[in-house]
Amino acid sequence: MTATQPKNLVISIGVDTGGTFTDLVLQMDNQIYTHKLLSTPDNPAQAVLQGIKEIISQASDLGHIQYQLNITHGSTVATNILLERNGAEMALLTTQNFEDLIEIGRQNRAELYNFDVDQPEPLVPSPRRYGVVERMLHTGQPQTEIDYDQLGQLINQLPEVEAIAVCFLFSYVNPAHEQITVDMLQQKFGQTSISISASHQILPEYREFERFSTTIANAYVQPKMQKYLHFLDAKLTEQFGPPRTIGQPKLQIMQSNGGSILVKTASQIPIRTALSGPAGGVIGASAFSQIAGYDRVITFDMGGTSTDVSLCDQKISLTTESKISGVPIQIPMIDIHTVGAGGGSIAQVDVGGALKVGPESAGADPGPACYGRGNFPTVTDANMFLRRIEPNHFLGGKMELYSAHSTRVINTLAQQIGQPQTDTAEGILQIANATMSRAIRRVSVERGYDPNDFALFSYGGAGGLHACFLAESLSIPTVIVPPHGGLMSAMGMLLADTVKDYSQTVLWSMDQDIFQRLSNRFSQLKLQADQDMQLEGISSDLIQYQLSLDLRYVGQSYELNVPFETEFDTLFHQLHKQRFGHSRPDFQIEIVHLRLRAVGLNEQTDVGKNPKLLEQDSQATGQPFTQKTVAFGQPLITNFYYRRDLLKNEIILSPAIVFELSTTTVIPPNFTGYVDSWKNLILSPV
Is there a contact between 307 and 440 (Cβ–Cβ < 8 Å)? Predict the structure, then answer.
C-alpha cells in the first residue's frame, strides 16, 4: 500500500458460510480478491474470522493506513437450528383453546394416501403451550378482554425457558392484547436473557397457522442466533476494529429476501436470515446475468451439501410459502427450491439393492473420501474417479486430494451393486443429475415456464461439473459460468442492498375508490419504512419502494402477487392464466395483502462491473496446459485449461475441463464454448 492512496479507504467483504466451505470476496478500490476455506460447523464464526484475516492479508499490507471495513455475512446458523432441531427450550402463549393449533396445522398432506406418514414434531411441545383468556374479533374489536389476573398467574408459573412466543387470534388487526402480554413478560423477565417474539411484530398477516408457525420459529432460533451474532460482532471489533479501522467494523447480515440488515435488526427477527446464503447467490447471479445480456435465467447453485435453483424472469422471484424442515415460514423469501444433491452427497445401496445418492452428505468433516478423512463414496469421489477433478488443481492447488481414496470407495460400492467401477461412478452422477433436473423442472415447467426460453446460470463449487449435463437433459440452450463461480453467493452479498419488507392484510373487494384507498395505506407503510431505514443508517435519497398486492378470485384460498400499477387487475388475470392455464376476467377479485419493499441502495460496491474482473490476463495463452483421458461414456482425450488462460471470444475445443480456484467446469464432447466480453464462459450444445 503506497502513501499516495486515500486514507479513507473502504474495504467491503462478502462472507458466505456453507455446509462445506466458507467463501469470501473482498473489494478494495478497483481490486477484487477471493478466498475459500473449509467451514467449521461446530463454531461457524471461527472460519469467518479466520477467512477475513486471511483475505485482508492477501489483499495488501495496509501498514498504518486506516480503513473503513464493511462486512456482509450470510449464515447457515438459523437454517441448521431448524434442520437439526436443537433450538431454544421455549413456551407458547396463545388464545385459550387454540393451544394445539400449531400441531393440527393444515389438512393438506404431502402423501395423500399414506395414513402413517411422519409429521414433523412441533417446535413447542404440548406441555409448554398455554392458553390466555382473551379473544379479538376479525374486526379488531375485543370479544373477550384480556384477563390480567389469569395472565399474571400463568406468567409466574412458566417453567424455565429460553424463549417465549406470543400468538393471539387476529393480532394482525389489533395487536393490543399481544402487546399487553409482551409488556407483562418484559416486566417479569426484563433483566434476563429470555427472548420474546410476538406475532404482530414478526408477521402481521392473516392465516393464524402460518403466522403462529413463523413466530414460533423466530423464537426457537433467536437465543442461539443472538449469541452467534453478538459473538461475531464483538470479535470483529476486537480483531479488526480501531485503531486499524475508521470506527467499528460495520457488520450487515444477509436475509432470505435478498437484502441485508444490521446485526441489531437480525437479532430481533433472526428467522429472516434463514436460507440467506442461497439468497446471496441468486442476487449475484441475477446481477451478473443481466450485465451479460441475459434477463431470463434459471440459477443453479451446486455446493458441497445441497443444490439450490431459482427462476428469474427479468427479476428475482419471491415467495411467502417456504418451509424449512417441515416448518412453514411465511416471510418473504427469494423463491429457491433446494434438493439434497451436492458434491458431498453420499452414494449407497438402499434396502431394495438399488443405488441411491443423497440427501445424506459427508459435509466438510469428514468430507468426501478424496479429502483424506471420509470413508463413503460421494458425488465428488465419482467425479474424481472419472478424472473430471484433478487432485493437483483443487482450490488452485491449495488443498490436497487423494484420488486413491476415491478409487477405493467407488470400487467397494461397485462390488456391492455388481457393476464395473466406471459404470458405478457414472451412475452416481446420473442419479445426482436426475435429482437436480427435477428441481429445475419444479421451478420452471410446473409453473408454466419452458426451460428452453432460459439460460442456465451455473455457480457454486460443484456447479460447473454438472451444468452442461443438466442443460442437455432439459433442452436449455445456453449455460453461463461466471468468473469466480464458486464464490457467487459471497459476490451477491457484496452487491446486496439493505431491504425491509412490510405487509398488511386488508381483504378488500374491488370498487371505484380502491386505487385511492390502496394508495393511502401504502403511504402509511412508507412512513414506517422511512423510520426503520433511518435506523439502518440509510439516507432518504437512497431509498426506493416496490409496491405489490396479493390478489385472488373471491372464494379462492391462494393468492398471486402482482405489482401495484393502474391496471393491476389485468396483470392478475394474465398471471393466473400463465400459472394455472385459465383465468376468469368476469370474476370478482379480492385484495388480500398489501406488500411494500423498501430498498436502501448499496453504493459502496459494484463488483459486477469491476474493471479488474474484465481484464484479460496478460499471460493468457488460449491453449490447454495439458491433455488427459477422461471418461464421457467412453475414454476421450480431453483438453485441460486454466481459466486465466482462456481468451475472450475464442472457441474452446471440447471435450474440455476448465480449472480455477473456486470451481471446475466440464465441457462435454457435444458442447462448444467461448468466453464473452464479461469473462463468462458461454456454453451451448453443438
Answer: no
Record the cell numbers describing residue 410, joined without a space: 467407488
Q: Could you give the C-alpha distances from 43 to 19, 38, 280, 491, in angstroms and in order?
A: 12, 12, 21, 23
Question: Residue 245's pLDDT is what?
Answer: 83
What are the tens digits of pLDDT across the range 220-234? 999 999 999 999 999
> How many angstroms separate the CA atoms of 396 and 390, rounded?
10
DSSP 304: S
| Residue 657 · residue 388 · CB < 8 Å | yes
Residue 282 in grid coordinates:
441468486
Amino acid residing at 478: T
Between residues 121 and 615, the one the model is more confident about: 121
Which pLDDT score, from 0 to 100, does residue 274 have?
92
Alpha-carbon gap, residue 568 to 335, rounded angstroms: 22
Q: What percent of the chain has pLDDT over 90?
A: 73
Phi, psi for residue 527 in degrees, rounded to 5: -60, -45
What angle do the packed helices 421-443 and 403-417 form, to 10 degrees? 90
Please write the tens of the pLDDT for every residue from 5-56: 455 788 999 999 987 789 999 998 878 899 989 889 889 999 999 999 999 9
Q: Does residue 334 come out as left (phi exceeding 0), alpha (psi in the -120 to 50 range) or beta?
A: beta
Q: In sequence order, what are the residues at sequence separation of 6 or more whose Cβ sits closer than 8 angstroms to the Cβ of residue 390?
A: 640, 657, 659, 664
Contact assessment for residue 591 and residue 616, using Cβ atoms and an 8 Å cutoff: no
Residue type, position 49, single letter: L
Residues facing 322 on adjacent strands: 329
Q: What is the pLDDT of residue 107?
A: 78
Burial class (CB in 10 A: 0-12, 13-18, 19+), 510: middle
Residue 284 gets the label, from left (phi > 0), alpha (psi -120 to 50) or beta, of alpha
Answer for the pair 427, 264: CB distance below 8 angstroms, yes or no.
no
Q: Rounded distance, CA 277 to CA 48, Å?
A: 13
In contact, 49 and 39? CB cutoff 8 Å: no
